[in-house]
Design brief:
Distance between the termini: 45 Å
Shape: elongated
Number of helices: 4
CATH superfamily: PmbA/TldD superfamily
Structural class: alpha+beta
Number of domains: 1
Helix content: 25-40%
CATH architecture: 2-Layer Sandwich
Largest sheet: 6 strands, antiparallel
Radius of gyration: 24 Å
CATH class: Alpha Beta
Length: 200
């Protein structure tokens, strides 16, 4: 079974659990996100911390006929944790506040709009060695400028996959990447001895 199928099946399992609460629940929605990231921090123009990690999570919101909402979340992607998550959300919904303005969750769409530029395979596959090249360039720029006396900077890249399913038939699966660099350099004028800083 592929990774894609595993996560979809797990999310769908949570949605199917709502069937036994059919008399209480008007609609429900599950949101699953799995991501991985790389982060490198620079302090005083040298690498102080580097981290590679991942985050997983799945949440559910359920709404009854009164418009009362129940919410729950878990970062454990297994059936037992999802069963517990659904149970907690149902309990919260039953004791929640009525919302007479609530109508329903979004319905199924025949063709979901496609937003270009959200995913870059190169960023997804980026390794720690690749990111260090960018960081070394920042350190080099600061080191070679005789006015620069210190730099604080950060490099981060991330990849995430999101699955959204609801009881009205909505089914959306998306993947996205993000990459960013920030730098703050302090400079000192050798003649006036005045200092200043810039951020980008």
């Amino acid at each position: 079974m592929t990774e894609k199928r595993d996560y979809y099946s797990l999310t769908n399992y949570g949605l199917r659990l709502l069937d036994k609460y059919n008399n209480d629940v008007k609609c429900g929605e599950l949101f699953l996100e799995k991501s991985k990231y790389v982060n490198i921090e620079i302090s005083e123009n040298s690498i102080k911390n580097s981290e590679i990690g991942s985050d997983n999570g799945i949440s559910i919101r359920v709404i009854d006929k009164r418009g009362s909402l129940g919410f729950s979340f878990t970062n454990k992607l297994d059936e037992k944790s999802i069963e517990n998550m659904v149970s907690i959300a149902i309990k919260m919904m039953k004791t929640g506040t009525e919302d007479t303005d609530f109508k329903s969750l979004p319905s199924k769409c025949d063709k979901y709009p496609s937003v270009k530029g959200l995913f870059d395979a190169e960023v997804k596959n980026m390794q720690i060695e690749d990111t260090i090249n960018y960081v070394e360039d920042m350190i080099k720029i600061c080191s070679e400028d005789d006015k620069a006396i210190s730099q604080s900077a950060d490099f981060s890249s991330s990849y995430s996959k999101i699955i959204i399913l609801n009881s009205n038939g909505l089914e959306a699966i998306e993947k996205e990447t993000e990459c960013q660099i920030s730098s703050e350099i302090i400079v000192k004028d050798k003649i006036s001895k005045e200092t200043s800083s810039g951020y980008e």
